Request: fold
Amino acid sequence: MKSLAIVIAAATLAVAGSAAGSGSAQAASNTSYAYGWPVKPFDRPHPVRGNFGDPRTIFAGPPTERTLLSGPGAFQFHDGIDISAPDGTAVYAVASGTVASVMHQWLVVDSGSGRSFQYWHIASSVSPGQHVEAAVTLLGHILRGCGHVHLTELNGGVAVNPLESGHLGPYEDTSAPVTTSVGFRTSVTGSDLMPELLRGRLELVASVHDMSTLPVIGEWHDLPVAPALIEWRIQRASTGKVVVPTRVAYDVRNHLPAFGNFWRVYARGTHQNMSVFGKHYSYMQPGVYLYRLTPGGFDTRSLPDSVYELVVTATDIRGNHSTYVQRFSVHNRPGVVGA
Reply:
């Protein structure tokens, strides 16, 4: 888990909702990749306990609902991946180049042509200016208490997803992310409304998560990670006719959302795995990943009063996807439905 400022100390309603089976468990692995893993064996997949785009949250207040919904803190998108490995594991360069800098717990290797790599949570064994060879040069060892190495790939100074095809490999994924609920709220921090009667402008919020394909050993086992893509559409419940075409709510297949847009992408109530609340560290507690499908709200008055379905599709970096359907009724005319 990499830093928010510089380093993070190691420290809903589905009444009519249904998960409409996995759409795909297709692309298992990428056969073509640019570089191998930073830990041995270099040519075999390793467990990834933190995905590109995961929420990274440190709250300044105690673990209360008020802190969660409105408290200050440090919040950002995870700009790399966390590769699970035991403390003391040797970490090697994934690409040849020159060591650009060595800082406390992390270092940067410049591989030329605008590409560089950051390796976090290691005790360094190299010096600035030193040439390194891919899969040969020992960069350092994973620090005690970290249990992973964080890898960031930068292209022209911009973080890109290392798990995108043509980057890190081999990488396998055969399971799809899941949407567990969809909520309709009058505000992004409000309570979920009953989908049987909705009116006016609403926030649409989906709870979505993925899981590591390979089992993560230790206290980070069975903790969620973020998907790569979330899309949604609205269709008539009676005919399936699409009335709001597919829109993208979240996409980190290549790049992260714009800096500063954390709470425009994630809804309040979101917090990372083992999140920090003031002096409290949520040891072994899973995170909650809530996504704003419509930042700024969706006006139900743009639809005639009727019964609709909100269809949310969550996809991982290999194209495995699942779909969740939430039925809801729009009634903006005065009076009560059926009166």
Remarks:
- Confidence is low (pLDDT under 50) at residues 3-30.
- The helical segments are 65-70, 262-265.
- DSSP finds two helices and 24 strands in the chain.
- The longest strand covers residues 242-251.
